Each structure stands twice: as C-alpha cells, then as structure tokens.
Amino acid sequence: MTEPGTTRSQVLLADRRRKLQMLAAQPDRVFELFVRSALQLTQSDVAAVSLVGEEWQWFKAGVGLEAVHIPLSLSFCAHGIETGTTFEVVDAAADVRFAQHPLVNRDAGLRSYAGHPIEFEGEQLGMLFVMSAQPRTLTPEQMRWLQDLAQGAADAAASHERIFKLQISQRRLLDFASASSDWLWETDSSHHYTWLSDRFEDLTGLTVQSQLGRNPPASPMRDGAGRVVEPLLGFLEVLDRQQSFARVVVLKPTPMGDRLISYSAIAKFGSDGMFRGYRGSAQDVTHRIGAERQEREVSDTLRLLAQHVPGVLYQRVSRPDGTGYCPYASESVRQLFEITPEKLALDCGPMFDRIHPEDRKSVEAQIRSAENSGQPWSQTFRVVLPEAGLRVLSGFASPRRMPDGNVLWHGFTTDVTESEKAAAEIARSGQQWELASQAAGIGIFELNLSTATITLDRNACQVHHLPAESPTAFVLAQWLDMLEPSARESAQAFISLAAVSGVIQREVLGVVTTSGEPRRIEFVARAQASRDRTRSRTPVLIGVCRDITEEYAIERLRQEMAETREANRSKSELLSRISHELRTPLNGILGFAQLLEGDRKEPLTSVQKQRVQTIRMSGTRLLSLVNDVLELSRIEQQMFSLQRESVSVNSVVNSGIALLQPLALERALQVEFIGAEHELHVKADRRAMDQVFTNLLSNAIKYNRAGGQATVIVEPLGTSKVQISIEDTGVGMSEAQVDQLFQPFNRVGAEKTQIEGTGLGLVIARELTQGMGGTIEVTSTPHTGSCFTIKLPLAKGSQTGRDSTDSMPAQTDWIEAAGGTALYIEDDPVNAMLMREVFGRLGNWKLLEAATGAEGLRLALAEQPHLLLTDMNLPDMSGLDIVKQIRQQPATRRMQVIAVTADALPQQQEMARQIGVDGYWTKPLDLALILKHLRGFFSANPDFPLSTK
Fold it and tell me: Structural domains in the chain?
C-alpha cells in the first residue's frame, strides 16, 4: 500500500490540533446516528466517522469495525482528505494503493470504499465513510445521502444549536430509508406533495415540479389482485385518518398509462402534537399484480385440467441434502399415494416411504442419475399403500437445476396396475401375433442380461438367414460374431442403452449370413423384468427384428437423390447470383459502349471506334461466358437446350482470331488459319461454338512459348463431319496430364504458373461440344506442343448461321416521340445513368427515376407514365410486388410494364409474365433491342408518332 501525499498532513499546526480536540470532545451519539444512517441508506457492511491526526487515524463512531485507531499509513481517509471532496474506491483489491491493506486482503475482505470529508471551522479534519465486501459504485442518490450526512455531521459538531434540526433531518432520512421502495414522497397536513425523490420521474414519466403542491391520486383502494375494494374508500380518505399505513394500492394515471401504485407512509406530528403530514414510499406494482393474476389463472386452469388427468401432476423441489417438498400436487395424489397435497407441500418424504422396499433404491438411484445428467426420469415401480395395498405405478418427470442448487421436477405419475392384468390377454394373442409376424417377416428375440444368452424364435432365425438345423439359443459373444465387425460396437451400445434406459431402443445392424452375404437387420427392444412383480426380477431385453436390406437400399438411394437435388439447387442459386452480379456491371460497360458507337452528335474517330468496338466485343464475350456457365448448370440438371443450326466455320474462326489477336500480339505469337477449299458449315449452336473455339484458341495462346505459333486447320472429315484442329508450339503435356485434363478445377500443374485460369474452360467446352453432337480429342507431346481437335456434324446445304456480330448489340438508330413519359425504378446509379442517356436521345421523351420500390409506386400513381421500367431486385421490395400493385390499381392497370433485370433464369421470366409483365429485358441491355421494343410500343400507341433521328 502506498503512502498518501503529505502536503497537508505533514505539518499540523496548533490550531488544527485544537480543532481536532474540540471535534473529538463531541458526544459519540451525535456521530453514531449519522454512521447508522449512512450504513442503512447505502446498504453497506461498514460505516464510520474517522478523525485524521498527524500520525494516527481514530474512529469517533463506527459500525462493523473493531479497531479504535490505525496508523495514518493504513488510512483510506487520509487519501480522501487530500482530495478535498468525495473519495471513492470501487475495488480496493484492484487498486495498487490499497491492495495490501489488512482490511482488504485478510479476514475482513472489504473491497469498496466511499467517504466525504467532515469540515470543521473551515478545515477538513475527518471523513464519514462506508465500506462494502463487494466491489461497487454508489448510486447518485446514495452518494448525495453520504454527502448530506457528512455535512450534517460537520454541522452537528460546529453548533449545539443546530443539533435539534439535524436530528430532525436524520429522522427524516431514516424514515425514508425504512419506508423506501421505488420512490419516496412527503406531504403537508393538507396532503399536498412537498417533496418527491428523483426516482419519481423515471418511474411515472411525470416531472417532480408538476406534482409539488398537488394531492396524491384520489382513486379508490384496490386489493392485491387489482380489484376495487368494497365498500369504496378513496386514497385521500385514507390520508385524512392521519395514521400510518402500508401497501395501499390505488390506480394512478401516468404518461406511461394507468399504473397500480402501492403506497406506504408514516404520519408526521409536531412537538405540539399537531399532524404535519406524511413521509412514505411508493412502488409500481402493476407488473407484479398482473403476474400474480396470471399465475392464479394458470393455477386454476391447471387445477381444472388435473381433475381430468388419470394420474398425479406435480412439482417437486429436491434439495442437495436429499430432502424435498412438492409446491404443487394435483388432488389425485390422495388416491395414488394416499397422502394429502398439503402434507407433501411441507415434505415429500412420505411419498418415497410408500415405494416398495425392493424398488426404492432403484428409484432413488435413477432419480439421482437424472438429476446429474439433466435428462428426464421415467420408471415403473411398486408402492404399498395403507388402504389399497400393492399397486404398480409409472412415473415420468423432467429436472431443471435452479440457481440456489435445488432441482425442480415437473412430473406425472399414473397407476398401471391394471396393465398387468392385460398380460394374460397378451398371452392369448400370442398365436395371432405369431401368424402376423411370420407373414411380415418379423422375428422375436430375448436377451437374458444375467446369463448373457440370446434366444431367437423361428422367424428371428429366418431373419438372420440361419440354417433350419441351427440352434435358436446363443451365447451373446456368438451372436456378436454373426455381425459385421464394424457393427459389433454399435450392438453392444444398443444393448447397454436398452438395459439401463427402460425405454424402447432401435438400431440397424449389419449381419453376415452363413453364405457370406451382408444383410441389414432392424432391432427394436426394451428392458423388461419378470412378469411376477412380487418375486425377485430377472432383467431381460425383449425385442423384434426384421430384414430391411431392400428397404435400407431404397432409403439410401432416396437420400442420395435428395442430396443430389439439393446440391444442384444450391449450385443453380449460386450460378444465378453470380450471373446477376456479373450482368449488372456488364450492363454499364456494354450500354455505354453502344452509346459511344451510336453518338452522332459527337462521333468517334476511327481509332476510338475500333477501341470501343474491342471493349464491346470483349464485354459481349464475357456475357456469353456468363450465359454458358448457366447453360452448363442446365446440362447437369437435364435442362440444357442448344439451338442447333447451320453455322459457318470460317465465321467462327475469324471472329475468335480477331477477338484474341491482342493477346497473341502481347505474347509475340503468330496465329495462322488454314481453311478448307470450300467454306464449310456445321450443325451447331453458334454461341456454344464460339465459346468452344475461343476457349481452345485462348489456351493455345496462353500456354504457348513466347514467339511461338498457333495454327487453326479446318477440313472436312469424310462426308458427314467437319474437323477443326488448333495446334500450338507450347510446353505440351504428359499422358497423365492429358488423362486429368477434363476434370473440373484441375489445371494439371498450370496453377503453379502465373497464367490465369479456373480449370473449368475445357470441361465446359467438352460438355457444349457433346451437346452439339460432336467430340473433342487431344494429342500432346511434352516440350513440343498440343493439338485439340473438334469434330462436328456437317450441315446440309449452305445456310449460314448467325455471324459473330449477332451476339453483340448492333449500332442503334435513335428515335424520338412527342410528349411521352417513362418511369425507371432502379437502385444501381450506373444502370440509372445508362437509361437516362438512352432516353435523353429520344427527343421529348421524359424519364422519371426512382431508387426504391416505394418511391417508384408513389410516382407511378401520381404521374401515371405511359411506360414503367423496373428492376426486379430492389432494396425494399421485389419488382414482382411492384407489378402486382400496379395491376391492382384501376388508374395504372393498363400501364405498359417492362422488367429490367440481371436475372436471366427462364423460371424468373415465366413468373414475371404470369403476373402481367409486358416485356422482360435482361441486363446487359442491347440498345438496338430496346429501340425495337419501343418502336413496337409506339406503333401500338398512335398518340406517339415515331421519327428516325
């Protein structure tokens, strides 16, 4: 513990000594009142008034302290006097100044300190302080009380004339402390509020100032359930009695609603015997009364229900020492245990005394086990009743450990004696069961846990596929040898669990027949004792078994199919999201590229046109790749469809070479095209063929050596096929690498290089080629190069398919219409900017914009535009919801609505059409297609004549 500073305590003048002597001469009882008040009001363990001298500190008055004086080096108060104001230590054990103080680290174990200086004749000579065994901080109200009491102690020491007034103040504080609950109050003789504690505002929502000078509520008294007491007696009438009272409940209106308030107060009388008013406390009991009312209602309901339950419903509290009681037991306990609920509410021992001596240890052991594990308890046991004699009961209960260490049980016990009588009926049904079980392939087995022997009936032997001459009884180890090695541990666990739990257990085990065939057999069993409950019981497992090999295989297949469907669904959702995320930025890239190409006011130079065209072609190719990833997903889900038509091979090759020429130039590669004598056409999907060829040629360039060569050779293959070969002079591949080439995400070693790739391109290329009725073949020589060969069916005739520019947006011819209005709902600023540019080139066409669905609906209803364009994925609502609301409003029901979205899945398009969408535009937008749609819309609306611009 560190020494406090000595700037003031080091030199004590004679004047200070005189003042200390005067203060020490004051009667101890003066300070004791303040000490006890501080102890009560702050709810502390220790309170004292200390006087600080030059070397010692002594205690003028104190509660909870044995010491009379201590050295100054051990003084909390010396530190407090040095601060000159209220001094608080939240946790002395964590404070380096006080961690070694004997009151902190020894038996006293005090942790927190709070004190305020006592000033006498202008000098601080001591402290009024409190200490607690717990780390804490005083509340503001407690701190104010401590400060007031310290000031009161100082005033008492300064003048005997003020002692009387201070005693009154002290009594007031003590009265407040004795009556306080939630907030404190004081009235005059006319019942007007003269003082309210700070908590009043927090708990009622009313300001203290608004209530001073006013009366408490005059509403009638209510009982503990919140009901008005008869005969009616108002609260002011209670106050008129000029008598102390407690827990008078009345209804008080507040800004937080009507509240039930419980008032308690002490009547004040002057020295002349005249009534001066009340000092008291008030507590909001609204929630408590409501909870008690609800508890009574639940209790009444439970009591009514329990009357119709064939057994006893109960709550039981079990203490750590083994004793307990039942807070609740239904009336049926009188018949089931021949004990009254009132007796069990005091002690549940008599209930356990009714248990049969042979069963009691088992019942108590299983209850203790359930308490320790937290698992439900379930058991059948016998009781011996004074009147009814021997009965058999079945009990079930669930434990819950309470914070105080007790265990609260909720349980149900019923009489099952009559079920024993049903055993004879069950025996008579044995023959019928034998016939039914044989027809269903169900066998019965019995395992004697004492002798570890298992007995199989005839059907059970057939289930195990045992020979007809095989014995029906086996030592348990012999039966375990019939099982698959991996199933033996599960079988032993199954037997153990069934033996101790007392409930039905189920297990499927692998059995190896005598012919070596593996079979799956289902076992269902539970523990059972001797049927004669009055004799010593032998524990056995009784169960059934059946061969479920075929069922098991079918179920496994069903699960695998379900898992496969779920995996495909998840993958489709992922691909849809990837497509959406890629299409959104592509919309800006391709859209503004088209705007630049079609800008006639500020036309591009030839070089700029070529660059913009390269941007547009690359963006279009990326869009094609995004679409093809979705197509590959459809292939795997058998939802893939290719548009097979006559496609010019030269067109595909020339387009691919042009697209990849910048990459070839970057690597100083030469790309050579050796075409056929005559132009050839294949029967293929143009977009798929573009992707396949571009992927293979891209690989020939990327994996080539610098300054190498890539050669494309097109030639007919017989009379029915066309062969396209892509040769390179790269590093080549080994046979092992070629074998792994078409595995997803396997880059056969290229992942160790700086060449970009995902390992999916060749997989997609092969799937697309096979989908077009073709094949891809690979030959490769390490350090020499590779050759990929595409073989596709030759198309009949010379019809040319879509050329490479078909997949790119065409240059646009702008139109203008007079006075039309469109509304575009889009949260992406780039997409909104693009649409704004498009409509900005349509002459007088006016475009309204909204970034949220709610704003868009408001504009649609207010402006009633001729055309509504909306994104399908808005931050606050779906575009489908917007369309539904538009179609429900008479004013907008016939409005033309077009969905503008990055979601290209067919099912989404179909859903949009079903709710009334007139058009479905997929991002990235083809501006030529937009103008085509707008022309169609304008031509169908003669009010908007068209003109080409």
Answer: 14-171 (3.30.450.40), 180-291 (3.30.450.20), 310-417 (3.30.450.20), 441-547 (3.30.450.20), 642-807 (3.30.565.10), 815-948 (3.40.50.2300)
